[in-house]
Design brief:
The structure is a single chain. This protein has about 350 residues and is an alpha/beta fold. Helix content is about 30%, strand content about 25%. The chain contains 10 helices and 16 strands. The protein has helices spanning about 15-25, 55-60, 75-85, 100-110, 125-140, 170, 175-190, 295-305, 315-330, 335-340; strands at about 5-10, 30-35, 45, 50, 65-70, 90, 115-120, 145-150, 195-205, 215-220, 225-230, 240-245, 250-255, 265-270, 280-290, 350-355. The strands form 2 sheets. The chain has a 9-stranded mixed beta sheet. The chain has a 7-stranded mixed beta sheet with strand order 3-4-2-1-5-6-7, sandwiched between helices. Helix 1 (about 15-25) links the parallel strand 1 and strand 2 (about 30-35). Helix 3 (about 75-85) packs parallel to helix 4 and helix 4 packs antiparallel against helix 9. The longest helix has 17 residues, at about 175-190. It is globular. The model has no long low-confidence stretch (mean pLDDT about 95).
């Protein structure tokens, strides 16, 4: 192709600016306009790119692609507006505040079959995750038996800030599980399959916001894979860990390379079950120094648009299934479900939420 795809970014905060860095690094894309409510009105950035205060003004520009980096309440509305305008759309996770939001987007997507829609489940593109998935799929270690996952940080509101939309239920829809833990939920689906039985405890007893600060889940698939998940905003030392136990060994992912650098080194340990029971088997340890995930995710999206290939990760179906599992966890705690009047229909019919 000779002309670059013209990209507009709706939501030009921390994430929008980070996305732009990798959009403009792709040889087939170029950011030509942005919008953010903090601008107050139209103008031009120092590099000549025009900016606007509203997404409607942004969509009036000649665009090919829209990146949606907005709050959860706005994400589905703007995603659909982009599709209706004839644009390919990349939307950050989560796709909305609830499952109904993503269902509305999917209906809109179906009415525009020639367009590409992708969701930003960025962790699938980390090298440690991709290497672990390749090992699992090779069959070398046998089938997955169980998983244990922990993903946590110390609070919702950034240091020095007085408030954050992430703690307002009417805007965010949920707390730490929906905002950050959704990545772990997505990875557990990736490695374990679809979970159909769920037990959980969901609380907001420490920070006392109207969204959860801790979610604990015990889940199983119909094939017998068991997963334990803890999503937390009271993890004083930020932590990411996912242990995948298989028939002939295990894969242990620890740390994740991020913009904050606060989750420690990204590593993968592969363990081969020994012939004895001494608990000290052969192990191979890999440390990852670079994070290609942001670039690779956008490169895949651009390739899908240009060459007409399918979206490989972060499809609308991925978004629906992952959001449904998040809501299955919410609804499996009857006290949490009843307190916020959550609808169990937001969990997929095959999921059995269990008190």
């Amino acid at each position: 192709m000779t002309a670059k795809l013209r990209v507009g970014i709706a939501g030009y905060g921390v994430v929008g600016k980070r996305r732009r860095q990798f959009i403009d690094a792709n040889p087939n894309m170029q950011t030509v306009a942005v919008c953010d409510r903090t601008f107050g009105g139209p103008g031009t950035l120092d590099d000549g790119v025009p900016y606007f205060a509203t997404y409607k003004e942004l969509l009036a520009e000649p665009l090919d692609v829209l990146f949606v980096c907005l709050t959860n309440d706005m994400a589905p509305e703007v995603t659909m507006a982009g599709l209706i305008a004839g644009l390919h759309v990349f939307c950050e996770k989560p796709p909305g505040r609830n499952v109904e939001d993503i269902k509305r987007v999917i209906a809109c997507e179906a009415a525009h079959p020639g367009l590409r829609l992708k969701y930003g489940f960025n962790h699938r593109y980390h090298d440690s995750v991709r290497d672990a998935l390749a090992i699992m799929r090779s069959g070398e270690l046998g089938k997955v038996i169980n998983m244990r996952g922990l993903y946590g940080k110390s609070k919702f509101i950034s240091f020095g800030a007085h408030s954050d939309w992430r703690v307002e239920r009417k805007i965010a829809g949920g707390g730490i599980l929906l905002d950050q833990g959704i990545h772990m939920v997505d990875l557990m689906r990736l490695f374990g399959g679809e979970f159909t039985t769920i037990h959980s405890f969901v609380t907001n007893s420490y920070w006392n916001h109207d969204v959860e600060d801790n979610a604990y889940a015990l889940m199983s698939t119909d094939s017998g894979v068991i997963a334990m998940l803890h999503s937390t905003a009271t993890q004083w030392r930020h932590r990411f860990s996912l242990e995948i136990t298989m028939e002939r060994g295990a894969i242990i992912l620890a740390g994740i390379l991020s913009g904050s650098k606060s989750y420690g080194s990204e590593t993968m340990a592969v363990v081969w079950a020994g012939e004895d029971d001494q608990g000290d088997p052969r192990e191979k340890f890999t440390k990852y120094e670079n994070d290609p995930s942001w670039a690779d995710e956008i490169d895949e999206f651009a390739d899908s648009i240009i060459n007409g290939t399918a979206i490989l990760n972060g499809t609308s179906d991925d978004a629906l299934r992952t959001m449904s599992l998040v809501y299955g966890i919410y609804c499996a705690d009857p006290a949490w479900r009843d307190r916020w009047k959550l609808d169990e229909a937001d969990a997929r019919p095959e999921q059995k939420v269990t008190s």
